[in-house]
Amino acid sequence: xxxxxxxxxxxxxxxxxxxxxxxxxxxxxxxxxxxxxxxxxxxxxxxxxxxxxxxxxxxxxxxxxxxxxxxxxxxxxxxxxxxxxxxxxxxxxxxxxxxxxxxxxxxxxxxxxxxxxxxxxxxxxxxxxxxxxxxxxxxxxxxxxxxxxxxxxxxxxxxxxxxx
Amino acid sequence: xxxxxxxxxxxxxxxxxxxxxxxxxxxxxxxxxxxxxxxxxxxxxxxxxxxxxxxxxxxxxxxxxxxxxxxxxxxxxxxxxxxxxxxxxxxxxxxxxxxxxxxxxxxxxxxxxxxxxxxxxxxxxxxxxxxxxxxxxxxxxxxxxxxxxxxxxxxxxxxxxxxxxxxxxxxxxxxxxxxxxxxxxxxxxxxxxxxxxxxxxxxxxxxxxxxxxxxxxxxxxxxxxxxxxxxxxxxxxxxxxxxxxxxxxxxxxxxxxxxxxxxxxxxxxxxxxxxxxxxxxxxxxxxxxxxxxxxxxxxxxxxxxxxxxxxxxxxxxxxxxxxxxxxxxxxxxxxxxxxxxxxxxxxxxxxxxxxxxxxxxxxxxxxxxxxxxxxxxxxxxxxxxxxxxxxxxxxxxxxxxxxxxxxxxxxxxxxxxxx
Lengths: 164, 419
What we know:
Chain A has 164 residues and is an alpha+beta fold. Chain A has helices at residues 10-20, 118-135, 149-157, and strands at residues 25-29, 34-42, 47-55, 64-69, 86-88, 97-98.
């Protein structure tokens, strides 16, 4: 993804976040040019502690949401790689982030407010995650293709996915 | 917790309540049976036929205020309809004779499986439905609207009469219940249509066998928005919960009319249905606690006819009040737990509160109605995703306590983290 002249500055994003999500507290990791917002976000009914992480220096950097507590988990008898719509961390799967939009469809770029997109999408992800935990059915809207990295890997093995 | 919104949990509570309603066809069958009362009592062999010239029939109880639910205990999908028949009962008739004559006259009612002469009414038992017919002797002129005497005739003990005004009470409840907003009522009806509630009733009464006459008041329209008032929804959930709690007890359940009065005395809670139900439970607990602590018996009276005491048969003793308080606290504790739980645990909590079959169907209804195509998701500022923003609008589109916006449409997508 490339940046644009419309990319929102950190101060603008901070202000919007404090207005829409006042319980997500901001913090700056100056050495890594990273802005963090940490606080509660609702799934179906209960709240999760989440962390929104954004590199505010690198042009076009995409914010990533991590679930701190309670930890997300695979369904019994399966692995993290089968969790739908993760930004899958193969080395430490339990530290995977959420994949909330289709980059090929340009659903997010730096001109968009994190508060208006990434955070509500993360809440929606948590809502659908709870139902997926219940019955194994993901009910959110999916981009075309596999819904998990596990499925992606299986399709790659049979050569059905290009550039996955 | 009554000050916190939980719109998705509210939507699940709404889906739960809708499982307890009758199908539209069953409502029509109910209407036919109710309207057939007058026709049946005018048959030549009816011993009250000569009293029917000035008779008047109308609904009372839950059906009159949109609070009817299927009983649903032990897989019994029973639904009750209470009707009053005003008859100019001769002064020399005792309560026993009035009830016995009504009992005799109702023999042969179409589709009925059993007819029982109860202490205060005659109960017509159909498959999946009871029709309780209470005979009333209208008060003498000048008569406050629809005030009259009903009869109490137990197997043991003396006959009694009680002055009542169920019609006035139902009107009072309807005036006091806050009607739902258009968007909430629409959302409830959309969910209702998606349920496909199964038909239950057998119907062999030909449509032409009855004619709607001036003497028989039409039942309240089944689609009356009052049934989607949050206070009435809370009442229905409370009744369902208590039906299950008392199913295997010998103690009597708190009576519906008592619960109905307090349900609408609890102000509308703009934070949602869950908060409304919690507030209702807290208020009932508060009133009973005062009665227990101060030794003054609960005495909720008909607000439009104070001679009528709703607590004349419940509670019988302090133990009954303590038991009720335990149930109310349990309900509040479980709702508090639901707010802090994931869906799988909430289903387990609802199994215990409202029954496994109903709770499973409610979860299924909720899940089946989630859109799987990209659309702009709504979210409550500072809280999170909302499936149906209408559940945050109890009265008008402007009455929400929350600010709700919509995010751009998007699709979820899996990726590998690149280092």
